[in-house]
């Protein structure tokens, strides 16, 4: 789960990490007022989930409250297109209005899970403000790392190692170590998958400040963080993906016209692969997961069919933990309810496959059965598309 | 023989009375697995289909000599269930549960370090040795047949797909093992390759990977240096859009090596036969064996 910059900064501030003074606004009048409160000159930052805002015109400086109002008028309601968004971009509904900061140095600090080490790793770099992946590619020696045990937290010597590596002036080492320890507390305490401060700046008056911040959370841990649920901004996410999330299925919208419903992420990816191999294009990735219920399958079918691009459907169920009869009932329920006429190819194998196939064939619906994966892909590729 | 599970497996099921736990316990039993105990706190002293249920893993181990555990406990309590099994002396822990918080698994891995037990999963379909009629997992038993092909995979249902293709071509399996789709699996491809290398029954291997991480590249390195049996590989996700599953900063640690094509190249460069589509895994094995 992602959140906005202003929300991430509020969390960092709760944990004692210094952030610039500022307020989030959703109207030009508010922008003017906040600018006046902050002394006139301010930065306006578009609050969208995508990165790359600066280059795309999502961050602007206003010299006075008047200009802040004018800029906010242009920015609010516009669509921001960055290298991380689709061609349509994302809508800007909120701006973070912040005091301007005089920068001496720009640094980088983040924590992620290192899968190979099976531990959180804190990374720091002197090359702040840049795309860190690019730094990793071109100057890997500029990234300093330390692995952290969740049983111990960040130890001071580890923080010092990073602080010395950043070549901070002596007086800043202690505050830096304390800031790093706080960032780790955020990471573990909130079950983050990413906690990133980029840039972490040293101001001209010699203070550390989190000028930009990004927090992503482990979706699997949200059950113990009810406080985070309220932070989600549904306008920043594909609506069908939100609905899928609610139903507990995994859905990613793509550009083709073959809607796919599959159980298991690996098989779902393989099904997309083979659809493409036979010359068609998948409209989505949809994994209904392990123990999906009849209702979840029906809801997943509904999500798939809500995509207006879908002209034909391939259902591939290999029953294991999910029983084919359960899947079949869900499919029949959804197709019947929506009076679907577009071609549907179903391939079923594994646990209770015979019962599943019987339910489909006795449903009275026009469903094309397939024996195996290749046949299923060919049948759906050859099917003349209909309308959902 | 096969690996990890077989005639000596005495299975305990944690979460045996839940809907998934009870359904799959019965399927395992029907396949021939010796299911000796179940654990559900608060239901000790009862029984499930003749299998005694205990309040704690330790009691179950003392009373029945269980040496393998299959875990169906819901995500919030699953990490603790793994620790309980490890503390009770279970040597093979198969965690089926999907959706365990990553931080919980980090702690579990730290705690299990240096201990002699092996964890498979979480978020895995388990494993099966058809010849010994031993199934510890969710896979439909009837698609398997005894034989000499080892199968290892990060996926569940895609493994069933591959196994069904093998069986249809008359190619039986020694052991099929799903190591799970979590970012921090207890057992990796390399761990499994080491076991298959030593297993006399296994003559060839099918390795099914997917996008993300570097486990397949590590496997390729191991195959190059130490694995002497022929291998067929398939990597799912060649058409998956980039950037959707891999976190931005997470890609740094492994370089940017998460794509299907990089994994395919790594495996192909060490002599692994790559199946061109998920429908051609079985036939690729058959062709490879004809050459050997």
Summarize the structure.
With 388 residues, chain A is an alpha+beta fold. Chain A is built from 13 helices and 18 strands.
Give structural notes:
- The complex is a heterodimer of chains A (about 400) and B (about 290).
- Chain A is α+β, with helices and mostly antiparallel strands and about 400 residues long.
- Chain A has helices at about 5-15, 30-35, 65-75, 130-140, 155-165, 170-190, 225-230, 240-245, 265-275, 295-305, 325-340, 355-360, 375-380; strands spanning about 20-25, 40-45, 60, 80, 90, 95-100, 105-115, 120-125, 145, 190-205, 210, 215, 250-255, 260, 285, 310-320, 345-350, 370.
- In chain A, strands 7, 8, 9, 10, 11 and 12 form a 6-stranded antiparallel sheet that branches. A 4-stranded antiparallel sheet of chain A has the order 1-6-2-3, covered by helices on one side.
- In chain A, helix 2 (about 30-35) packs antiparallel against helix 3, helix 5 (about 155-165) packs across helix 6 (about 170-190) and helix 8 (about 240-245) packs antiparallel against helix 10.
- The longest helix of chain A is centred in the middle third of the chain and has 20 residues, at about 170-190.
- Chain B has about 290 residues and is an alpha/beta fold.
- Chain B is about 35% helix and about 20% strand.
- The radius of gyration of chain B is 19 Å and the shape is globular.
- The chains are: A alpha+beta (about 400), B alpha/beta (about 290).
- Chains A and B meet through strand 7, strand 8, helix 4, strand 10 and helix 9 of A and helix 1, helix 4, helix 5 and helix 8 of B.
């Amino acid at each position: 789960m992602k959140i906005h910059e202003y929300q991430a900064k509020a969390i960092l501030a709760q944990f004692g990490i210094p952030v610039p003074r500022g307020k989030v606004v959703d109207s030009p009048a508010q922008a003017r007022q906040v600018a006046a409160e902050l002394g006139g000159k301010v930065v306006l930052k578009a609050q969208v989930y995508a990165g790359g805002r600066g280059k795309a015109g999502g961050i602007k400086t206003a010299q006075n409250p008047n200009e802040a109002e004018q800029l906010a008028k242009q920015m609010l309601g516009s669509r921001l297109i960055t290298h991380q968004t689709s061609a349509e971009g994302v809508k800007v509904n909120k701006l973070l209005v912040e005091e301007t900061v005089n920068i001496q140095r720009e640094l980088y600090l983040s924590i992620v899970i290192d899968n190979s080490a099976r531990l959180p790793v804190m990374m720091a770099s002197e090359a702040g403000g840049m795309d860190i992946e690019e730094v990793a590619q071109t100057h890997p020696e500029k990234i300093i790392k330390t692995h952290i045990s969740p049983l111990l937290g960040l130890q001071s010597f580890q923080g010092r190692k990073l602080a010395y590596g950043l070549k901070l002036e002596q007086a800043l080492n202690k505050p830096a170590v304390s800031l790093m320890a706080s960032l780790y507390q955020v990471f573990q305490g909130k079950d983050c998958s990413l906690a990133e401060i980029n840039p972490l700046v040293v101001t001209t008056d010699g203070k550390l400040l989190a000028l930009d911040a990004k927090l992503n959370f482990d979706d699997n841990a949200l059950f113990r963080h009810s406080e985070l649920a309220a932070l989600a901004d549904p306008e920043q996410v594909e609506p069908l993906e939100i609905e899928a999330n609610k139903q507990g299925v995994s859905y990613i919208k793509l550009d083709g016209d073959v809607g796919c419903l599959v159980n298991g992420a690996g098989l779902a990816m393989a099904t997309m692969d083979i659809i493409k191999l036979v010359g068609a294009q998948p409209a989505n990735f949809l994994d209904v997961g392990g123990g999906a219920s009849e209702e979840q399958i029906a809801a997943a079918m509904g999500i798939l069919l809500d995509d207006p691009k879908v002209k034909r459907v391939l259902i591939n169920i290999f029953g294991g933990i999910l029983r084919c009869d359960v899947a079949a009932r869900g499919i029949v329920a959804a197709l019947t309810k929506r009076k679907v006429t577009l071609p549907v190819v179903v391939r079923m194998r594994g646990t209770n496959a015979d019962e599943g196939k019987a339910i489909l064939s006795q449903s009275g619906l026009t469903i094309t059965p397939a024996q195996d994966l290749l046949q299923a892909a060919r049948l759906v590729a050859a099917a003349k598309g209909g309308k959902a | 023989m096969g690996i990890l599970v077989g005639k000596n497996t005495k299975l305990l099921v944690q979460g045996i009375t839940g809907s998934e736990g009870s359904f799959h316990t019965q399927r395992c039993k029907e396949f021939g697995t010796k299911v000796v105990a179940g654990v559900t706190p608060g239901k000790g002293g009862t029984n499930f289909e003749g299998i005694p249920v205990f309040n704690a893993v330790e009691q179950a181990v003392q009373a029945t000599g269980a040496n393998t555990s299959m875990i169906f406990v819901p995500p919030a309590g699953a990490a603790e269930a793994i620790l309980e099994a490890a503390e009770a002396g279970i040597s093979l822990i198969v965690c089926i549960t999907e959706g365990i918080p990553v931080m919980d698994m980090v702690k579990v891995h730290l705690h299990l370090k240096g201990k002699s037990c092996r964890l498979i999963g979480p978020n895995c379909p388990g494993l099966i040795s058809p010849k010994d009629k031993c199934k510890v997992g969710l896979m439909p038993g009837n698609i398997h047949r005894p034989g000499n092909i080892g199968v290892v995979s990060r996926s569940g249902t895609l493994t069933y797909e591959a196994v069904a293709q093998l069986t249809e071509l008359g190619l039986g399996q020694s052991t099929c093992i799903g190591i799970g789709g979590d970012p921090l699996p207890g057992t990796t491809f390399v761990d499994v390759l080491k076991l298959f290398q030593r297993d006399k029954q296994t003559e060839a291997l099918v390795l099914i990977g997917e996008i993300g991480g570097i486990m397949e590249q590590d496997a390729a390195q191991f195959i190059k240096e130490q694995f002497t049996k022929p291998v067929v590989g398939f990597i799912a996700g060649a058409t998956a859009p980039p950037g959707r599953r891999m976190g931005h900063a997470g890609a740094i640690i492994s370089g940017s090596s998460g794509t299907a094509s990089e994994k395919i190249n790594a495996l192909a460069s060490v002599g692994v036969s790559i199946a061109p589509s998920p429908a051609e895994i079985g036939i690729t094995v058959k062709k490879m064996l004809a050459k050997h």
